[in-house]
């Protein structure tokens, strides 16, 4: 697979509710893979981040910045997509994570989230580049996002699905006037 992983390469376009599986019968690159098994290096690892991620995700889902085109998170195709920097800042502001400091604290957080199976990376990269569109509108915006497994949502009611479009943006083809990939579906 790409970048030294055994996960299939992501499809040319992004996630959207109701997206079909690849025609060759391979698993969809947008489906949640099984969480990675924790590695035992003998060194003490980071604290369990699951409670903090669940709490931060719950706060985001309850906020007006959720499931809106210019928001900080979307629920699409069985996963939660959260704007990377705002979600990391939300997590790092939590009392149990405030001791994390330094210039690479977000990068370290992303690495720890992935190691604990709380982040579904894009190949070897934790951040996905997406195009987010409003329902029925052709104009879309870029968002650097993290993909979180749907199992992290602990709300009492099912989470609504974003009604707009969400698709992967491939940087070389979206610059200098070239058209971005259309969303799946």
Protein model, in words:
It is a single chain. The chain is 20% helix and 16% strand. The protein has helices at 50-62, 84-92, 105-115, 171-174; strands at 73-76, 79-83, 128-133, 140-149, 165-168. A 5-stranded antiparallel sheet has the order 1-2-4-3-5. A hairpin with a 6-residue loop joins β3 and β4 (140-149). The chain starts with 49 loop residues before the first helix and ends in an 11-residue tail after the last helix.
Summary?
By secondary structure, this protein is an alpha+beta fold. The two termini are 24 Å apart.
Head-to-tail CA distance between termini: 24 Å
Contiguous uncertain segments of 5+ residues: 1-39
What's the average pLDDT?
75
As laid out across the biggest beta sheet, the strand order is 1-2-4-3-5
Number of strands: 5
Q: Treating each run of at least 4 consecutive H or I residues as one helix, how many helices?
A: 4
Major sheet summary line: 5 strands, antiparallel
Q: What is Rg?
A: 16 Å
Helix content: 10-25%
Please identify the structural class as seen in this structure: alpha+beta
Overall geometric form: globular
Spell out the helices and strands N to C.
Answer: HEEHHEEEH
Strand portion, in percent? 15-25%
